Amino acid sequence: MFKKAVIVDGGIAYEQDKETEYQDNIPGTSIKVILMPGHAHEHASLVIGTDKGMVVVAADVFWWTDNEKQTVDDPDTLIHKSDSFTQDKRALVKSRRKVLQIADWIIPGHGRMFRNPKKKE
Which domains are seen in the chain, by residue range? Predict the structure, then answer.
């Protein structure tokens, strides 16, 4: 189905039978992969420069349940938002702070994309 898909996994990009190691950016792109442990130890996020600013596909660094109100107006509320699945709370807080330093826009693991409240004009 996705014959030309590139699969990215912890520093290696797989394209069919070819493996390519990489440091920061996914090979052939300007998409940066950064480790974001906390919710899970192996989590990573994608950082993409766009004409609207830096977009971070944050995975479960930030997420909301289906019935939960997505409140994104206050950086401190975001940083300390409860996560019942957290594997390392201290690492999660550090990852959330990192996302808020980098991103203009954030795409959470579950929920709608939102503008970083630290960067609102």
Answer: 25-115 (3.60.15.10)
